[in-house]
Design goal:
Blueprint (H helix, E strand, L loop, with lengths): L3 H48 L1 H4 L8 H12 L4 H8 L3 H21 L2
Keywords: Coiled coil
């Protein structure tokens, strides 16, 4: 059985953890808001490119270099595979493939900088 001092000590630690959790939750909300703002900032350029499908897609419907850059920018800003697939009107499989390529190039770039 715990004595009063031990109970008080444990309660103080629990309250400190609650404060840390609240601060972490607030930080997470701030990060999510910042990411959403950046995503919104990216959208006008992406929407403009989508309005001009010829600028981001080849005649066969596949992404051209500009489309790939736009998709990579979307992934860099935190977009999910599903969001990219919807936004750029490509299949989820194609979006997943582009994400894998993007991740590999990102890893390769960080390996070169070391």
């Amino acid at each position: 059985m715990l004595d009063r001092d031990r109970i008080k000590s444990v309660m103080m630690r629990l309250m400190a953890l609650e404060r840390k959790a609240e601060k972490l939750a607030e930080t997470s909300r701030e990060i999510a808001q910042e990411a959403a703002a950046l995503w919104e900032e990216l959208m006008p350029e992406t929407q403009e490119e989508l309005d001009n499908q010829g600028k981001i897609k080849r005649p066969d419907g596949r992404l051209n270099d500009a489309g790939i850059r736009a998709v990579n920018a979307a992934f860099a800003s935190g977009a999910t595979v599903s969001e990219v697939a919807r936004r750029f009107e490509i299949t989820p499989s194609a979006a997943s493939g582009r994400r894998k390529i993007w991740l590999a190039s990102k890893a390769e770039g960080s390996a070169k900088s070391k």
